[in-house]
């Protein structure tokens, strides 16, 4: 019985997240369009509202082309690895008090591990496609993930030190319900490092070097088509949401808000995620891509020292005060 | 003039990424501005004065045929040679046998309507005439007259009053035509009036602000 309930919960979460993914693409196109004084999708449905559905159906029925020279099993598995890793990390996210599929004590580490695992999908896709563009994309992704995973992990160490736990629900509870309790204030440096590393982890502009359309055709996804191509993008958008959720949980007080909305315990959590997603899109509409050496420089020379300094600072303040 | 690619920033501006924030503010402002998109098939696009579109022969209201006198000037001036006219002489008067225009070879320069002494030919404002084969773009005389009828119908034009800006003014002998028959271009369209390239820098106020 318990398993059945869990299964239904998983299905509901999956459906809701997939719907969010579909409409995240819609809002991305709409917002970027309006920021560029265009309109975005307007044709399918009222103001293009059915566009993501049409896109989904289209990519589902498209031919799944596998290049002749590709490493077939790995080529077929790579997008699945990406998507599965991202979907798995949804399991540990607390959407509201008690609303979590797996309330495990290593939640934060688990999410970091899963986001690293999903980059395996990208690297394998780049390798298995047997094409220079995908290979370059995969290499870049590998280098980028290694650099920014460190910065991101270190930026979250401050949060772990303050809350004394890795369990995501307990991190939220440790921040209390008050506005000033949010870790964004004592951990402002960590929050900055996290935001930058978050963009890099999800391969978003201005760190979208692995799929840089203007240089690498479509990077690691060049040889993919149809549903498998769509899976990469689902993984990317779910990754954005997971990273937004981590930011919300660790720095912005999770499901706590100025007041409780009756009947919708996850209201503030979801709202904060939407704000994060908007910022993701907003940044994409504004910034150009970093050069490869600038990316490395930013990661190793700025973010990692900043995160380390933040850890030292947090430790000292914690030792002095309490 | 020296172009400063990297303006000087102080340390605080570097740390706080003020330039990125400026850019973000710009995109956010644009988010709430009105899109300039014209939803083409739904929205009518205003046709500019002097637009040159589908070819047509003006229908003579008296005879119902074309006004063409087979002077062959349009066929001669046409740079892409897409106008083909055949005629025979009857009592010293030319009678047009056939008048064909291959629209696919036309470059829409408008010379033909400029040289026409009787204002028989016109490049109308109609631009929506796509087809799936080449044949529909070979206009014969009846097709060109039908184009004129379509033009008058779709753009609500009375055939008696319509005047094309490229046409020869009526009632003037040819040797007394005004010099510029094409519309005078605005001052900043002329080669001298344009401010591009090196002229741009010269036109800047010389206080080194840009």
Please describe the biggest sheet of chain A, giving its number of strands, its sense, and whether it closes into a barrel.
none
The protein's oligomeric status is heterodimer
Largest interface: A-B, 14 and 15 residues
Mean pLDDT of chain B: 80
Biggest beta sheet summary of chain B = 3 strands, antiparallel
| Stretches with pLDDT under 50, minimum 5 residues of chain A | none
Calculate the terminal CA-CA distance of chain A, rounded to whole Å.
46 Å
Number of helices of chain A: 11
Strand order of the largest sheet of chain B: 2-3-5
Q: Overall 3D geometry of chain B? A: elongated
Beta strands of chain B, count: 5
Rg over CA atoms of chain A: 20 Å
Which class best fits the helix and strand makeup of chain A?
mainly alpha
| Separation of the first and last Cα atoms of chain B | 9 Å
Total beta strand runs of chain A: 0
How much helical structure, as a percent, in the residues of chain B? 10-25%
Q: Uncertain runs of chain B with pLDDT below 50, 5 residues or more?
A: none
Order of helices and strands of chain A: HHHHHHHHHHH
SSE topology string of chain B: HHEHEEHEEHH
Helix fraction bin of chain A: 55-70%
Structure overview:
The complex is a heterodimer of chains A (322) and B (210). Chain A has 322 residues and is mainly α. In chain B, the strands form two sheets. In chain B, strands 2-3-5 form a three-stranded antiparallel β-sheet. Chain B has a two-stranded antiparallel ribbon with strand order 1-4. The longest helix of chain B has 14 residues. Classes of the chains: A mainly alpha (322), B alpha+beta (210). Chains A and B meet through helix 1 and helix 10 of A and helix 2 of B.
Give a quick set of tags describing it.
heterodimer; A: 322 residues; mainly alpha; 0% strand; B: 210 residues; alpha+beta; 3-stranded antiparallel β-sheet; two-stranded antiparallel ribbon; 6 helices; 5 strands; 12% strand
